[in-house]
Amino acid sequence: MTESLRREWGAHDVLTLTIDRPDRRNALDPELLTALADALRDDGERASAVILRGAGTEAFSSGYDLSRLTGTVDDLEADHYIGEAATALRACPAPVIARLQGHCHGAGVELAMNCDLRIAADDLRLSVPAVSLGVVYRFQFVARLVQICGLARASDLLLAMPELDAEHAAAWGLVTEVSPGSDIDNRVHALAEKLAASPRAAVRGTKASLDLLARRAVSGEDLLLAQQLRAAAAASPERRDAVTRRKQSMSRRAGTNKT
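-> structure tokens emitted (259 positions)
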């Protein structure tokens, strides 16, 4: 287990997994994503419910760690790690509750959408700005978004790239409910305890039934075409320029914050 992912057991076998990189707004990297997938595979059978959260209150996750990107086709390697974590969230027999507070962007949104329930604090800021970085998102995530919020809202989120507050995220169906930030832990734990107290076979059977429907959205032929589109976008020279500009912008902001 990497130090950037904390694993804690609570009452009634409720498992809390904490993305613990507060200095990077809980940005995701291969090591953390691998640890998350491993934890879900190792402990999902024992858990009555799983809570996935970010350390602190500033961010659930700011997305994939920009410092790990090169702006070239090599960045598609990140798909493997993101995909493994997303698959593990869906395959986990116990229901997973995402505790969303502060910033939730990019790959962080993909993790959240693959959880079964999403409880948001009222300070949530959510966006999927991949297109601005020259990225075509994984088809599995696009399909998941369409299932959750519909084609029109998914198009808005991916192409218009708005930053949604908690109220709008709830109205779009992206979060289950909104809680005051001061009370979000109580609400998340109450929900986890409710699941833990329910008959396990019914809880797990319901999650598995929903996942059977979700998998119908992705066919092999569609997935192959989507992968070709993603590879073409990842190899474009415009993408390298976009990533470089974003890194420079982040460096400038970091320098300003230190003064």
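The beta strands are 5-9, 14-19, 49-54, 59-61, 96-100, 103-105, 117-121, 125-127, 164-165, 177-179.
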